[in-house]
Structures
1.
Amino acid sequence: MKLADRYSNAQPSGMVKIFQAIEKMDGVLNLSIGEPDFDTEHDIIDAASNAAKEGFTHYPPLQGFLDVRTAVCDYWKRHHNLDCVPEEVLMTVGGIQTPNLALRALLNPGDEVVLVEPCFSPYFVQVKDSGGVPVSLKTTEENGFAPTLADLEKVITPRTRVLLLNSPCNPTGRVVPRQQLEEIAAVAARHDLFVLSDEIYEALIYKGGHVSFATLPGMKARTLVMGGMSKSHCMTGWRVGYAMGPVELIRVMTMIASSQTYGLNTLAQKGAAYALANHDAKLIERKKIFAERMDYVVKRLNNMKNVTCTSAEGAFYLFPNIEKTGLSSEEFVWKLLEDAHVATIPGSAFGTSGEGYLRIACTQSTEILVQAMDKMEAFLKG
Ligand SMILES: Cc1ncc(COP(=O)(O)O)c(C=O)c1O
């Protein structure tokens, strides 16, 4: 068998390498997982199973059932004051499929996409697979890992077509403040950029509220908001994402999706429709738990030798600075895994500006976090 040339030297990403190593080890305290440790609530499961018994076992409408698209609109209006109608919503197979469809729909070969680094690593691959050119906009801890206007202006060229934002951010856990979003919006308008705004962590903000990019003046027509059920409603395995944006873009994305997946699993859509309409109280409950966990871990990290960590702003990630240890982020992570059996992800797995940092996911019980912090502290004392 001969693989395609472009895959003949395919290597796992920095993140996948860690996951593969953990699978072969026993007793790992795993702080590398980007999914909530809570199971999906049983009434959501019941809603999906009841739908199956009522006959919802057939192909779904390609764009998604009207009830779930309406529930998406209601949820975003209620939580983030975003006005959208079901015609502007497409249900996707996980949040991960959304940028893939959007980039295919938007890019001509050679078009440039600005990625704000450090960022969710699949974006790089998706831009290339869509014929585009990823352009890294590096951010720093001093600037809150948010793009400065000067840096943004510097990377924009006549070929720049799309700006991809992600706030709250994986991996930094930082949130871009409203004023900075407004400044970015002005740049997007000036250079006629389309904005893909990955807001999948919208339900997990610990200071202030979430600002949906499409609610900024003039931005709705040039923004696709990307959301999903994985992080907010603990439904990772259901693979439910959605996109909200201009009807013409949604139409083309639906067409592209029809030849990839032929729609999103019928039962998952029914579960999501129920969850979006009925679980607001649970979101608050879980956010409180994540906030407590993150506060605890930040305190512990800041008491460790050669480590500093800023407080959590959003998502469930912390991004401590380990530069003073003298180790690269890869060296640190692998040594921590091998010596202390604590799994984290090297910051460099999210782009070069993540070098010098680790991503710690607070997606484990406090009991496990306590043990992991004890082990990491002992590891650093050497
Ligand atoms: C920033 C970001 N976007 C999108 C996704 C995709 O999530 P899912 O495909 O589970 O909806 C993730 C998952 O980790 C993420 O961190």
Note: The longest helix spans residues 280-302.
2.
Amino acid sequence: MSTARDWLARRDAVVCRGLPRVTDVVAATASGAMIVDVDGREYLDFVGGIGVMNVGHRDPEVVAAIKAQADRLLHTCIHIATYAPYVELCETLARVLPHGEHTKCLLLNSGAEAVENAIKIARQATGRGAVICFGEAFHGRTLLCATLTSKIDYKRGCGPFAPDIHRMPFPDVFRGGGDADAIARRELDRLRRAFRNTIAPEDVAAVIIELVQGEGGFNVVPEAYVRGLREICDEHGIVLIFDEVQSGFARTGNWGAYQHFGVIPDLSTWAKSMGGGLPISAVIGRAEVMDAARPGTVGGTYGGNPVSCAAAIATIRRMEELDLNARARVVGDTIRARLEALRPSTPAVVDVRGLGAMIGIELAEDGDVNRPATDATKRIVKACLDRGLLVITAGIYANIIRILSPLVITDEELDRGLSILEEEVLRHVGTGTQAPSGRHLQPAVGKVSSS
Ligand SMILES: Cc1ncc(COP(=O)(O)O)c(C=O)c1O
């Protein structure tokens, strides 16, 4: 039997090094909010495969739907022969994520592919080329998406990038001083001025924004900014695209983050938790915008594969049965309260932010927001991993710890994970007096019995 160490050596020998390897975990099985590695170590999962496992690992009904579909039909290519799961999934998406009176969908394989296609649809709908995106944005790693993505580490050496992409500062409430309405006014004004001195609005096809930035650090857009963006796009005939790849499917306490803001985009992009673990993504939009795409300009061999569609239909049904939107609010409130409680005694915790169960904490040296505690954050994440809690960072300085646990996590698991995280934050960046003296909680890492 190969150990984790063996597998990592084999990986290093044949897998290209550009593919990130954030931990040394070698997963064997998973269920609910737990992952078990090939050596039998258990990990409590606060990552969910980066926001993919909202419904939980190996939900029994999702697995059953996958098996049943595999027994019926694996592939025809939707261009060649129509099949029920594709149509049924689009009907379900239009029901839970309506975009006005008539909603249409396009299914693809990944978040990046959804973003690429949303931009192509917007360009066809407007006959324009330019796209406006934001600082700290993450939209994927294909070449157009890498252009839209902000952080240099994700794109260094990959250019030249796509032309006619214009980046505005993200309306960052935390860095902007905390007054959301004032920041919204200032940044909307900046956008209007950019239409005078950077790009003419009549050349702009689309504005694409994450309502809660994922990789960028769980920054939530001020509501007034979203409303203002809608007005500006309407005024100039610009397609407004919300990228909900990370924020979608119950993560924020709604099917989509946009449902918190009372603003409907023209197009939106979805992936990750939609498929319950299988690769599938969608562009959803107002029918008249979606239908601007000429036949043949969108699609692909595998997009909306029958098995992935069956998984997504079952995932959404399970999310409804389990009321994961409500559960996300409870999980989020718990996480927020626990992490906020660290702040009075731990100046290094400079912010706790997010929406629903998409919560992150930002760490800075001595509480100085201009000195990101990147190294300490790395040590905390590593210490958590050593104690059986899988958690990852976000942000351009990787000094934000983000929580994307499966929403089916039990109260006991959530409590256990948060206790480990709290202890390690205190141990590494606490002021000293309140840091626990090396005491471990219940050992979170244990051998799994072979039964
Ligand atoms: C907001 C957002 N958009 C797009 C993507 C790209 O998705 P994928 O990795 O499936 O291509 C991601 C991935 O993290 C994301 O968070």
Note: Residues 50, 110-112, 115, 138-140, 210, 214-215, 243, 245-246, 271 surround pyridoxal-5'-phosphate (CB under 6 Å).
